[in-house]
Write a structure and sequence with these properties.
This protein is of the alpha+beta class and 282 residues long. The chain contains nine helices and 13 strands. It has three domains: 76 residues, Rossmann fold (3-Layer(aba) Sandwich), CATH 3.40.50; 64 residues, ATP-grasp fold, A domain (Dna Ligase, domain 1, 2-Layer Sandwich), CATH 3.30.1490; 103 residues, ATP-grasp fold, B domain (D-amino Acid Aminotransferase, Chain A, domain 1), CATH 3.30.470.20. The protein has a five-stranded antiparallel β-sheet. It has a four-stranded parallel β-sheet with strand order 2-1-3-4, sandwiched between helices. Strands 5-8-6-7 form a four-stranded antiparallel β-sheet, with helices on both faces. Helix 2 runs antiparallel to helix 3. The longest helix is centred in the C-terminal third of the chain and has 14 residues. The radius of gyration is 19 Å and the shape is globular.
């Protein structure tokens, strides 16, 4: 019978649900608590005894580095370090999405105050300014005019090198919601609307989860986005553009799914566990 490793740093409800479902399938499930762990790149013992691992760290850097170390020991990890790395950088992931003909909002990169002002003028106000790394809707900013944009960029110039790359995107006038579609292998078992009176609809920022029907168009777009980034288990954020239709905002390689399970009734944790079990038996 296959054995598995669950890698985590904070045991949220998502991880507890997944652990429960994994224990129903696997002969043994070990836990790797990253804040307590020491990982080796060159070791060929210890953790390699597992047939598969699932990465559930909420920290981007912990997820990437621990996955790389486990892969160096020969362990199969979902998602891979490459998938986590490219999906965790908005500039890199947007480039890969566009290269693979996955539709995204119009987006420009700028590296200084005046070039950011120029980028915004090309897109037309309002514009959304995002850090190239980050999640849960943190540090997103809406600039309605040049004065607001200059204030945003000037603040970020003092926050370190990472925040001196300005990811400037068209403001999509969405219908008070966006979509989070869940990808597991070659399937899209569930999706939710994230509804809010604010332009930021992330549930971590107060958005309300409601069930969404997975249409053929949404399924195709979700699978193409995950394939473009090499993501096996992911959450794809999609926005409904009034003229362009469905556009991909980003792909999360360590997705939360408790709200998806709660409002749709789909046991996403079980489906992830079954996917891991199938991959472990290969």
């Amino acid at each position: 019978m296959p054995t598995a490793l669950l890698v985590y740093d904070v045991a949220r409800l998502d991880e507890k649900l997944l652990l429960d479902r994994m224990r129903r399938l696997f002969d043994r499930v070990e836990l790797l608590h990253l804040p307590s762990a020491v990982l080796e790149f060159t070791s060929r013992g210890g953790l390699v005894g597992a047939d598969i691992a699932v990465q559930r760290s909420i920290s981007f850097y912990r997820a990437v580095t621990s996955t790389a170390a486990l892969e160096a020991q020969g362990l199969r990890v979902v998602n891979t370090s490459h998938a986590i790395l490219v999906s965790g950088d908005k500039a890199v992931s947007t480039g890969l999405l566009v290269r693979n003909r996955v539709p995204v909002p119009e987006t420009l990169l700028a590296y200084g105050l005046e070039s950011t002002v120029k980028a915004a003028s090309l897109l037309g106000y309002p514009v959304v300014v995002k850090p190239v790394q980050g999640s849960w809707g943190r540090l997103l900013a809406l600039a309605r005019d040049e004065e607001e944009l200059r204030a945003i960029v000037e603040h970020r110039e003092y926050m370190g090198a990472l925040y001196r790359v300005q990811y400037v995107q068209e403001y999509v006038r969405k219908p008070g919601r966006d979509i989070r579609a869940t990808c597991i292998g070659d399937s899209v078992p569930a999706a939710i609307y994230r509804v809010s009176g604010s332009w930021i609809t992330n549930t971590a920022r107060g958005g309300r989860a409601e069930p969404a029907r997975v249409t053929p168009e949404m399924e195709d777009l979700t699978l193409r986005a995950c394939k473009a980034l090499g993501v096996e288990v992911g959450g794809v954020d999609i926005v409904e553009h009034p003229e362009k239709g469905l556009l991909v905002l980003e792909v999360n390689a360590v997705p939360e799914y408790k709200n998806v399970m709660r409002v749709t009734g789909v046991d996403v944790a079980r489906e992830i566990a079954e996917y891991l079990y199938g991959e472990a038996k290969r």
